[in-house]
Amino acid sequence: DRWKSRYSVHAFKVNGESASVDTTTVEEYRTRLPDITKGYTQADIFNCDETGLFYRALPDKTLGVKDQSCKGGKNAKERLTVMFACSSTGEKLKPLVIGKSYNPRCFKNVNKGNLPVTYYSNKKAWMTTNAFIDWLRTVNTTMRLQRRHILMFLDNASSHSKDLNLSNMTLKFLP
After folding, report:
1. Tens of pLDDT along 149-172?
2. What b/e sequence results for 43-59 when a residue is b if at least 16 CB atoms lie within 10 Å of its CB, and e otherwise?
3. CB count, 10 Å around CB of 32?
4. Residues 6+ positions from 134 with CB-CB distance below 8 Å
5. What are the Cα distances from residue 156, in Å, to 33, 141, 174?
6. Full-model pTM
């Protein structure tokens, strides 16, 4: 730290995007949350979200001298889509991973059923309605075997089917 301050070296963000959240929507939802979660224990309230994993992307921050421009290159586009679900007490469900290849080289001689994730594939490595429904049905079966009824919060992605009738899961789509 002393060396960085002596030579005026600072961390710069090479690229990125920023988004703002509508605070009125957050406040409105915060007041409705106790009514939505009524009847569920903390262990039975889950949040589910998906993200892109750009596994060949370079870091978006670097060190540079103050007042000197910092430029980045093109970001690599190879990606996986990963969906995580976690309860409010920290219980993690088996993640869903979506890649481009049906049978990647890294899975050679590996039984996909023994992986710590559920793996699907499609041409663009994006979430599809079929993959989402299959994953939800698997989670529903797991909860039925454990004799649990859970509440799952999801975002309003177009691939997230709202017309699903699950016996041990209640889905709530966030605005």
Report:
1. 999 998 877 677 777 788 888 888
2. ebbbbbebeeeeeeeee
3. 9
4. 118, 120
5. 17, 23, 6
6. 0.73
